[in-house]
Design goal:
single chain; about 290 residues; alpha/beta; two-stranded antiparallel ribbon; 9 helices
C-alpha cells in the first residue's frame, strides 16, 4: 500500500508565524474525507510518535492533517522542542482558533497541491484536551466542519487557571507572567497574563457549552475515566450539553496510555481503542 506522507509543510498561522503541517493519505485514493487533528496545551503534533495514529486514519481512507500550532513553542526545524518560549507564553485561545481556520483555508484552497486527494466537502475536526475545546468552538464557527471528535476535551476555556485561587490570578496580573514546568523537558515555560485577558475579552466566543449545544453535526466524545488532567466529569458535561453526541469511555489516563518518547510500532491498548472507535464513527457517517 502506498501512502502520501509529507511532514512540516509551512502554513502561516497567527501573527504571521509558520506552522509545521503534516499530511497522511493513500496515494491511490481520490478525494478522501479530511481529518484535522488539533493538539492541546503543551502539545506537539509528533508527541509519542503520533504518526502511528495518522497512518491508521490514512489506511482507513481518510486524508489526515496534523500541525503544530503557531504559538506552541516549536518550530518547523525543531518540531519536538520548545525553542520559542516567548511564542509559547503569548499563545491564547483566539490565536489557536485563527490557526485552525488557516488550516481549513489552506486545505480548501483550489491551488493546494493535495486537492486531488482531499474531499474538502467533508472535513472532520479531532481535538485533544484544550485542542478539543478549540475543535468544538471552530466546529460551531465554521460550516465547513461536518463532524467532530473530542479526545479528553476540556469543557471550558480556562486552561491552566481554572482551579487557581483568586489571589494567584491577581499575582499573575501584577507580575504579568507565571511559569509552567514542562514535565518532559523540565523547562520553565512562561504564560503571560494576556492568556487570561484573551478569555475575559472573548467570553461569548469561547463558550464551549453554547457551542457544543448548538451543533447539528455528528459528534463523538471520548474520555478516560482515570483522567486527572481533565476529569471524566467534564466529558459528562459535554454530553449533557449535547445529548445527541456519541460517547465512549475507557479506563485510562489523559493521554490514553501514551508517553514520550514512544518507540513501539503499536499504540497502547487504550489509545488503540479510541482510534478504532473514532474511525468506526467516521465510517458510519462518511
Amino acid at each position: 500500500m502506498t501512502f502520501g506522507i509529507q511532514k512540516n509543510i509551512p502554513v502561516t498561522g497567527s501573527d504571521g508565524k509558520l506552522m509545521g503541517v503534516d499530511v497522511f493519505y493513500k496515494s491511490e485514493n481520490k478525494q478522501a474525507p479530511v481529518v484535522i487533528y488539533v493538539h492541546g496545551f503543551n502539545g506537539l503534533k509528533d508527541w509519542a510518535n503520533f504518526d502511528l495514529i495518522a497512518t491508521q486514519f490514512a489506511d482507513a481512507g481518510y486524508f489526515f492533517i496534523k500541525m503544530n500550532m503557531s504559538h506552541n513553542g516549536a518550530s518547523i526545524a525543531s518540531p519536538l522542542d520548545f525553542i520559542d518560549v516567548e511564542a509559547f507564553g503569548n499563545n491564547n485561545y483566539t490565536k489557536e482558533l485563527f490557526d485552525v481556520e488557516q488550516i481549513l483555508n489552506w486545505i480548501c484552497d483550489d491551488n493546494n497541491v493535495h486537492k486531488n486527494y482531499a474531499d474538502t466537502s467533508n472535513i472532520i475536526l479531532i481535538g485533544h484536551s484544550r485542542g478539543g475545546g478549540i475543535a468544538i468552538l471552530k466546529s460551531f464557527e465554521d460550516t465547513r466542519v461536518k463532524a467532530l471528535i473530542t479526545w479528553a476535551s476540556v469543557a471550558e476555556c480556562k486552561t491552566p487557571w481554572g482551579s487557581m485561587p483568586a489571589e494567584k490570578i491577581d499575582a499573575w496580573r501584577q507580575e504579568d507572567v507565571m511559569y509552567y514546568t514542562n514535565q518532559r523537558t523540565k523547562q520553565p515555560l512562561p504564560l503571560y497574563y494576556q492568556l487570561y485577558e484573551d478569555y475575559q475579552n472573548n467570553k461569548a466566543r469561547l463558550n464551549i457549552q453554547h457551542a457544543i449545544s448548538a451543533l447539528k453535526i455528528p459528534i463523538l466524545i471520548c474520555h478516560g475515566t482515570n483522567d486527572t488532567a481533565v476529569p471524566f466529569e467534564k466529558a459528562i458535561d459535554l454530553q449533557t450539553w449535547q445529548p445527541n453526541a456519541s460517547f465512549f469511555s475507557v479506563a485510562t489516563d489523559h493521554v490514553f496510555g501514551r508517553s514520550h518518547p514512544w518507540i513501539e510500532t503499536f499504540l497502547p491498548e487504550a489509545m488503540q481503542e479510541v482510534v478504532n472507535k473514532s474511525i468506526g464513527f467516521l465510517d458510519e457517517h462518511f
